[in-house]
Amino acid sequence: MPAPQNRMTDRPAPTTADGGFYAALKARHDDILAEYRRRTPRSAALFARASEAFPGGFTRDAIYRTPYTPFIVEALGTRLIDADGQRLTDFWFNATALPLGHAAPEVVAAATAQVARGSAYFGPTETELALADLLIGRLPCAERVRFTNSGSEAVMMAVRLARAATGRSLILKCEGSYHGSYDDVSWSIAPEAAVGSAPVADTAGLAGHAGRVGVVPFNDPETLERAFADRGGQIAALLIEPVANRMGLILPEPAFLTAARRLCDRHGAALIFDEVIAFRLGYRGAQGTLGVVPDLVTLGKVIAGGFPGGAVAGRADILDLSAPDRPDRVAHAGTYNGNPTTAAAGLATLTRLTPETFAAMNAMGATVRRRLSAATAGLPLTVTGAGSLFKLTAAAGPIRDYADAAVADKEWEALASLALLNRGFVLTTGLAGCVSAVTRKDEIDALVAAIAEVLTL
Ligand SMILES: Cc1ncc(COP(=O)(O)O)c(C=O)c1O
Question: 338 CB less than 6 Å from ligand 1?
Fold first, then answer.
């Protein structure tokens, strides 16, 4: 009998046998929750207070978890201490932002030295210049840089620059890609089911996508080709996430990336790589690793050394549109853009991130993926990831695009993640993780053993 199909995508839906596998852990739901509550009474009390201050108890959606997320008191290296005194091993490092781990000595020293000299001035510093020079030296596309306060702001600025450079307004993005909280990229991030090219609002409050945003499936060069054939003259930019987080931290396939570069060139659109996470792939970022050079790159997380920050970098002729003395300039203010504390921390972080450090982190990431694949062989689970990043998805796989990822049993993933938290390991609720330079082999051994144990619950 053929496998049942998902109506929207023609992909095989999870089979009954898979459902049986997922049901076993779900049958333990109450026990896992009771254990979590038993371990975290002080976090529960703080969450009750937070629910009076923050809508739903949270001030950033990214850390949402049911019944609540452990409050953190301090962190060092790979270790987090929560409000109940639990020692947790971090395998997510503030959403991949801390490749040297928490409170890395050189970052602490650089940031505290800067704070002692003043944390922010109404004037430029040599530190922001040094960080910009470093990015220009490493990233193939980077001829100029503008600093921002977050990855979201970097994407917002990149989109504005691309629109100004082309005189067009349509931005193409991939279904299942997250690019931060800016309105024009808040479409088709995580629709209930994959629908391909129709923009689906990810949030209430958007003004509409018509003429502003188009969506294409990831890793589908033919559909991309058709999108450019239909609307090439309207497209200002194609925005690609070179490590697609919500799809399982997967890479774009070479055929997709080369088609993206070729089509942007042919139709005069800007190719933007969102490397807010993907920069983690290597010394020259994702573009250096994947061998395709975009026109613009957006950065955040790692380059800010654990502080709020981001950047847009790229071709001089595009970035120079934001030169303040141009009458037709692309405006870009910002009280904390390039602030010296972030710049000092970012510089200290990037200085430590030599090619050898990247190689060591990536080798560890490969080890985790290989060992998780072995531990989950024969089960309806798929291990994906790249570089220092990994994810365990509750779907039979393989996963190449959002349609493959969207059929995952997210309830199983969130419960497994909570069971891992009960065992002292922090991954996302979708079981995404990463290693950092300070992650040790015995911590990887312990994580794999804990996951194997959760699989037998
Ligand atoms: C690929 C990508 N782009 C943009 C952002 C937004 O960055 P920020 O959270 O710093 O605004 C993120 C955040 O996770 C991201 O993963």
Answer: no
Q: How far is the CA of 173 from the centre of ligand 1 (A)?
A: 14
CB 218 within 8 A of CB 175: yes
Name the residue with the closest Cα to ligand 1, atom 3: 179
CA dist 352 and 356 (Å) reads 10
**Domain stops at, among 316, 337, 352:** 352
Domain assignment of residue 339, given as a range: 105-352
For residues 120 and 87, membership in a common domain is answered with no
Q: Ligand 1 atom closest to Cα of 300?
A: 10
Is 1 part of a structural domain of the chain? no
pLDDT tens per residue, range 363-389: 999 999 999 999 999 999 999 999 999
Between 191-200, 219-228, 278-287, 397-406, the lowest mean confidence (pLDDT) is in 191-200
Per-residue pLDDT, 19: 76
Spatial distance between the Cα atoms of 358 and 405, rounded to a whole number of angstroms: 27
- Alpha-carbon distance of 97 to 86, in angstroms, equals 22
For 311-357, what is each residue's pLDDT tens digit?
999 999 999 999 999 999 999 999 999 999 999 999 999 999 999 99
Predicted TM-score (pTM) of the model is 0.96
Q: Which of 286, 318, 352 is the last residue of a domain?
A: 352
Whether 110 and 237 map to the same domain: the answer is: yes
**146 SS3 class:** strand
Same-domain status, 97 and 115: no
Sheet-wide strand order for 389-393: 382-384, 389-393, 432-434
The predicted-structure confidence for 423-441, as pLDDT tens digits, reads as follows: 999 999 999 999 999 999 9
How far, in Å, from the CA of 214 to the mean position of ligand 1? 20
Centre of ligand 1 to C-alpha 32, Å, is 31
